């Protein structure tokens, strides 16, 4: 049978995590000040990853595995596992430091980070080109998906969707089809920059110029260089 003390501590942890972002939140009744501060630091780690523009943060704490049989514990320490990040679906570790048997369990949590972003004003099918009237701004859960949410309409308008988007659904970077700026064999303009200088020349693309992916270019003399496609038939090199 599960320890009543363990259940009480888990319930207190739930209440504290849910309220830790409210102004002036007080330590939960019966929870030590030290444990209260540790849990606050873990939960507040989500705001460090959130960045500017966040309007609110909500923490939803799940339940321990009902199959667990935990011994009574006088001191439970919450901690953040090395591979966990308090952003979206995550977990917090709970370990018994003082009890007849030491145990370690993981408590699932979901950190919802809300902020303004672009959403579809209407249903947009995959393969459609986004127009100015297709977008609006709304508060969404930025942490709901791993891909960054789009906030600037100039980045999205004119782009082609890689997947269908529902009305009111937030647009993510991965929703946009990758652009091809040039094809292998085409002539491209190369701009090389370094400390205090900038040089421009032409070359022949040896690979397709896909947005966000390096491309190889042959320049005068047959030498091959690698740069980043930045526009139609344009490549930039940083020396």
If you had to describe this structure to a student in words, what would you say it looks like?
By secondary structure, the chain is of the alpha+beta class. The strands form 3 sheets. Strands 1, 2, 3, 4 and 5 form a 5-stranded antiparallel beta sheet that branches. A 5-stranded mixed β-barrel has the order 7-8-10-11-12. The chain has a two-stranded antiparallel sheet with strand order 6-9. 23% of the residues are buried. 16% of the residues lie in helices and 36% in strands. Strand 11 (224-231) and strand 12 (234-238) form a beta hairpin.
The strand count comes to 12
N-to-C SSE string, H for helix and E for strand: HHEEEEEHEEEEEEE
Low-pLDDT stretches are 1-31
Give the biggest beta sheet. 5 strands, antiparallel
Whole-angstrom Rg: 26 Å
Range of strand content: 35-45%
Helix segment count?
Answer: 3
Shape: elongated
Task: State the separation between the terminal residues, measured CA to CA.
Answer: 66 Å
Helix content: 10-25%
Helix- and strand-based class? alpha+beta
The average pLDDT score comes to 80
């Amino acid at each position: 049978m599960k320890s009543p003390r363990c259940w009480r501590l888990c319930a207190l942890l739930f209440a504290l995590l849910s309220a830790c972002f409210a102004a002036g939140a007080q330590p939960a009744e019966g929870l030590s000040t030290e444990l209260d501060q540790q849990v606050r630091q873990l939960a507040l780690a989500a705001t460090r990853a959130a960045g500017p523009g966040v309007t609110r943060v909500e923490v939803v704490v799940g339940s321990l595995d009902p199959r667990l049989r935990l011994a009574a514990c006088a001191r439970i320490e919450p901690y953040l596992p090395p591979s966990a990040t308090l952003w979206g679906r995550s977990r917090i570790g709970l370990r018994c430091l003082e009890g007849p048997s030491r145990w370690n369990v993981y408590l699932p949590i979901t950190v919802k980070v809300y902020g303004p972003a672009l959403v579809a004003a209407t249903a947009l099918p995959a393969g459609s080109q986004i127009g100015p009237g297709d977008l609006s701004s709304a508060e969404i859960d930025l942490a709901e998906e791993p891909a960054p949410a789009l906030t600037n309409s100039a980045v999205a308008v004119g782009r082609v969707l890689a997947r269908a988007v529902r009305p009111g659904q937030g647009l993510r970077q991965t929703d946009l089809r990758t652009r091809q700026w040039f094809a292998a064999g085409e002539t491209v303009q190369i701009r090389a920059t370094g400390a205090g200088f900038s040089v421009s020349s032409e070359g022949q693309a040896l690979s397709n110029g896909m947005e966000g992916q390096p491309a190889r270019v042959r320049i005068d003399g047959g030498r091959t260089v690698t740069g980043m496609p930045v526009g139609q038939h344009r490549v930039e090199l940083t020396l």
